[in-house]
């Protein structure tokens, strides 16, 4: 027998969840545009610090809804420190990329995270990965090579050092995701994970900022505030979305971030993607979606 069709209320909840994910991706694009607008005028550590500091007021709203300060109680301080370390690693890589590469390209490179997560799960978690997912990983990195165009790209070829830094940042995001999974399996709340990350990373990046501090001007202060608020708002939207809808339904819509950042890049910096970019984006997204599909199939068999 086929399952009964979803009720009107369930369909409405799923629709709201999808719209929230798309909205969160668009809001993250706003934060990315702020980072790119600052560029190299401020040290990356300083931008990371203010991104987290100015996000805290909105995150504290989430904390209040979750029961107040008691929601921050944790039995896993070491894992929070690891998550913060890898998360900052990822943030530094992405912020460096926004300052030095086309904004949509950095977003696309960020979607190598599932590829690295698949590979790292074999090494660190001893998971079994079949030939289909390994093939998707290889294809995904071929998409990266197409975007980088090391052969025949001429002046359009991307700077390899900046690409490498962004990809290392994606490794950091993958390690952070693995740490979050462990904490989630141990019963740690999502609120605690998000806010402890903001607190720890703001403190650590603040210390790193001391020897390289540059006083922002009025425009830069406005951009820093916008980056922090937009990042926090996007996190709240994403959290609300995954409370209303299933991961298997929502995850593909996160790839809309490439479309939003492409529109921002074209509209503000005239960063028109060429056919290398579009082909690379398509290959990378297809590989990521296939890995996601195989994860869904594997979970259904458990």
Automatic annotation (TrEMBL):
Organism superkingdom: Bacteria
Pfam families named among the record's database cross-references: EamA
GO CC annotations, alphabetized: membrane
InterPro entries: EamA_dom, EmrE-like
Protein location: Membrane
Membrane topology (UniProt): Multi-pass membrane protein
The entry's keywords: Membrane, Transmembrane, Transmembrane helix
All residue ranges annotated as the EamA domain in the record: 16-148
Transmembrane segments: 53-72, 107-125, 134-152, 158-178, 190-214, 220-242, 249-269, 275-292
SUPFAM superfamilies named among the record's database cross-references: Multidrug resistance efflux transporter EmrE
Family: Belongs to the drug/metabolite transporter (DMT) superfamily. 10 TMS drug/metabolite exporter (DME) (TC 2.A.7.3) family.
Entry protein name: DMT family transporter
Originating species: Falsiroseomonas algicola
